[in-house]
Each structure stands twice: as structure tokens, then as C-alpha cells.
## 1
Amino acid sequence: MGEGESNGLAGQYFDAAIGLLRTVRDTEGERIAEAGTLIADTVAAGGRIFCFGAGHSSLPAQDTVYRAGGLAVMNLLSVPGVVGVDVMPATLGSALERVDGLAAAVLDSSPVRAGDVLVIISLSGRNPLPVEMAMNARALGLKVIGLTSVEYADGTKSRHVSGTYLKDHCDLVLDSHIPVGDAELTAPGVEAPFAPASTVVTSAVMQAVVATAAGALAERGIDPPLLRSGNVDGGHDWNGRVMREYADRIFYRH
């Protein structure tokens, strides 16, 4: 009996997640390196970095913002009612993803400017919000990195009037390889598939991109603006210094 089998469904889930992580590591490594280099190029040139995701796709975006071991210059591009599931009813967030024109309004009222980088995370990439976010961001002169499951474009119908997906409007696409439906397990007596792995995989991809960016900056002799844990001695003083040095590129403090 294999280790996954001996641990039952929990072991099967871990095996599935590990398998997806290996797939992404082996197939997306070059593009992850390109994404990290693009972020390093932007930081070195004085540009700013923004991340956006809707619903549960916002979790990997939030995971890179203001966190220990991360770059201080990662900013969340927030859309009220869409980022997270704190809006009531929670289903409103899903509905807002389908509203035409919302992305343009958000970008117009945000601090983004030409030369910045915007990472857009959308598992399916089929809704108007991420599609229009990418289209409008590129029109404003931003570089767009899309993190999505390309399989969804083959297995679902776009909800945008153009019939296109997020992947069609990016400077660089990172494929999460998550299967349509985002559920890794089935079991006797359980009618619906269950156990999603998109958050695990997409968060890992984002951290790999940030790690690559930090290394690329260091290779150029630039001290990457990394944050330390506030729960270790000296962490707050370190973070205060970094935030002062990069205050013009940090938008989550005010």
C-alpha cells in the first residue's frame, strides 16, 4: 500500500497537489523565471508592482502583499466586493466578475501608471472582469502577467463579449494546469468532485515568481526590498526602513 493510500483521502489530496506542483515546476519554469525577471526589471527602473485576483483567486495575490519574506513593493489592486468572500451575500462577488466596464473604472481610479506591472490571477480567465482588466491595463502601458488555467479556455465558454480569455491579453502567461472544475478527488457516496488545489498551486507559483525577482535584483547588486517577520527581534525596525526607502511605491499603508 502506498503512502497516499494509507492516509486515505487526505493522502490522495496531498499526492494530487504535489503532482500539480511538479507539473508546474517542470513545464512553467522558464515562464516563471521570465515573470520574476520582468518584476525585477520594473523594480530596478523605479516602477511599481500590482496584483489582482477575484474571489478565491485573490488569495494568492494577497499572499504576496505585506508579508514576511516577500517584496515590500507588491501591492494589491482591490476591487470592492470582489477581493475575498467578506461581501454579503458572498455570491455578489461572483456576479461582479461578470460586470462589463468595472475593470476600466477600477484602473482609472487606481495609482497604476505606464511602466508598472500588473499580475492578474484568474483560474478560469473567462469572466469579463479579468479579461477587461488585462485589456485596459495594457492599453494604459502596463505589462500584464496572467496566472490562469489554460485548460479552462479549451473546456469552457468565455463570458466576455469578445469571446476571449485572460490568456489572450497578457504579455506573459503562467499556466497553473488546474483541471476544469478545480476538484482533485472523487469518492463513493459523494456525488460531486471535491478538494480544490488551485490556491495551493497558484500561491506556490506567485511565491516562486517573487523569489526569482528577489534573486534577479541581488544579481544586479540591488538589495531587494524584502520584509522580515514582525515576530522576530528587529523585524519592525527592518520593515520600517524598507518602507521608508520605497514609500513612493507602496500603496497599502494609506
Note: The beta strands are 49-53, 74-76, 117-121, 143-148, 172-175, 185-187, 190-194.
## 2
Amino acid sequence: MKKLVAIGKTVEAAVRSGLSQLGVEENRVQVTILEHPSRGLFGLIGSKDAKVELSVKPDGVEEAILFLREVTGAMELAVTVERSEEADHTTINLAGEELGILIGRRGQTLDSLQYLTNIVANRHSDKHLRIVLDAENFRERRKQTLEALSERMASRVIRSKREVVLEPMSSQERKIIHSRLQSNPHVKTYSQGDEPNRSIVIAPK
């Protein structure tokens, strides 16, 4: 935990000075008052400034980003990191060249790295964090692919009146297909099997 001792004429002034030096907001620090200010004899002799210690609280998402920089650096990949806050999660998008190695086959490597990133983030946070890791907007492109696949397979099920079992997918990808077909009046979807080989079944209603 990063710490800094700051002084000022008042406790408030000392805190402001410390925040300015650290470059953080007040809600990111824990303040310990080391010395209260005193006016001294006649308000002149022996007067003391206030002294405070500011301890920066760890930020889980920032720690996760540092972890990702270390991983990509070790792989000698030049990436830029973009962070965006959503209603129920934080998205971290990695941009750069030759990121296919980070994505892997159908995003499997990216999913594994996302799992590790969430572990790091929550280790440094006092509240539960959910991080979605993306690379070159792969998640959106994969979502579009899965939605198109679900429509094609639903049409096949309707024509043949026989169920179709899709390849094993992550829970995140299965959710995309369930959501896409939930309003289709002719088919239903459910999952079968055990992780990590759990698959979606599209069946006629």
C-alpha cells in the first residue's frame, strides 16, 4: 500500500497537499493524523504544522491492468489498455497488433486470461468486482457470429423438427444463444453436460 506523509497549517490543508502529491481523490485514501497543529507560545514560538499520513487504498481494476501489462510485456506484445465502466462490470479492452495469441481458438485463451484477471482484481478489492476482458473488440465480433449461428441452427431445427447440439461453449457464450432464441416461438434451448464441455441444445417446441 502506497503511503505519504504530508504537512500543512491545518489537517485539511495537509490532506489536500498529500492528495495533490499522490494525484488521487480523497475517497482513494485512508488518512491517519500524526500530529495536530499547535499555535505555540503567544501564537508564535514553537508553533507546529499538522502532519498526516495518507495510505492509498488498492484499486482492484488498476491492479488487474498492471497484471495485464506484465503478462503482455512478458509476451513482448505492445498493447494499449482501455477501461470502461458498465452497470454491473468493468470492461478492459486490449488494443494492438498480433493479439491473436491472446485470443486463442474461439477466445479460449482470452477467457482463461479473463479468469486470472478477475482473481487479481478481487484479491485487491474489498467488494466483488466483475471484469470482462476483450481484445480488439473480439467479444462483439464473437457475439455477432454466435447470434448468426443460433439463427441458422434454429431454422434447421424448425425444418427438420429434430434437435441440434452445438459445440461446447463457455457460460458467457451460451448465454448469448439462450438470449437470442428465447423469443423464438418455434424452438427452445437448454444446456447439457458438465463444464468445460457444457453445450447448448436447440430443440423444437
Note: The two ends are 57 Å apart (CA to CA).
## 3
Amino acid sequence: MGTTITFKRPDGKDASGYLANAARGNAPGVVVIQEWWGLSDQIRGLCDRFALAGFDALAPDLYKGKVVPYHDTDAAGKEMNSLDFMDATTQTVRGATQYLSRNGAKVGLTGFCLGGAVTIIGAVHVPELAAGVVFYGIPPEQAAKPADVKIPLQAHFANKDDWCTPELVSGFEKAMKAAGKSLELFRYDAEHAFVNEQRQAVHDREAAELAWGRAIKFFANHLGSNSAA
């Protein structure tokens, strides 16, 4: 449904990503950030789904073509740990945001796992964003302090998550509230990465559909929507 495109980062360098456009022109935009596996078919599929819901969706390729197979967590960890999160967010993600906002459209940011952490960093460091939806990822405070978040956030976390633990989530929620920031937070009795339908061991369809509906409604409220719904 979508296509691979090249877009400019603020520093003038080229970046690539997968773009799926809504059927109507002048649609709001959503930048979609990959899990630690890379820009997988599953992330492309989510862009297609956002497009069907009335948003232009662009997933920047933060690993520059590298996609790690689902069984190889060591390789995924290596890729994630070698990623410059600040460069990826302030340059590649910001470039994708600027690309989608070039016709004056409002743009939101969402991401999963690694991408959830990038979404919170973007909420601090990417001024063109209007809203963000976080899926089971929180960055270290030195990358993005809750007090510095500049946009409304919605967040989805799993109670059986041993990476983005319930304790970590509670700390983030408390810090956001203490700073008077706009946060809608949902917890699901599910595993980390429960939205990823290609990983049957962790996928929870009921939780994933509930979270998806909430995310679409949140983005429609904050970005506007050109969907028929």
C-alpha cells in the first residue's frame, strides 16, 4: 500500500522511510517508530493501517536498512545499543515530522518498545509535534525529563513487561503528574510487545485492538482527522 521514500533531516542529510498516505489530501500525519527489530513488515503494516484510519503515516528507517529476525534478541539489543537516540530523534524523526507537516498538517508521533522511548524523547526535542502515543518504552531521564515534555501524551504499557516494568511506568506517571503534564496512561494485563501480531508468543489481540482504538481517537482529537469515521 505504501512506498519507500527519501526525506531530508534538518542537518541536510538524507534519510529513508516507509510512507503510507491516507486516501484524502490534507490528512494529518503520524510518524511511526520501529521496535528494536528495525523497520519490519509489521511496522509497515501499522503505517498502512494509520493511512486507512485517515492519517499520512511515515516510519523512518532508524537502522538504515537493517532488520533483525524476531528470534535474534542479541542482535536486536546490539542494534538498539549502537543507535544514537538523540541523533535519531532530533534529526531523522524530526525530518520525518517536517516532511509530513510541510503542507501545514498537524503531526503526531508514536512508537513501540525502542520507538516508545523515542516518542518521549521526541515529545521533548521535536518542536513540530502536536501529540504523542507511547507503546511500552521509556527513555532514561537524561534523554528526556517528564518535566520537559511539550505535547499531550497517551501511553500504553504491559503489566507483564520485564523491560519497561510496572515500577518504571509508575515512576514516569508520577513525574508527569508532578510536572502538570498531559498524560493519558493505560495498563494492560499483557506481555511486552503485545501489539505485534507477528509475534504470537506475546501478541494479545484484545489488548492490541483496545490500545489501537484509543490511539486513533487520541490522534483524531489532537491532530484532526480526515477519515470518514
Note: The two ends are 20 Å apart (CA to CA).
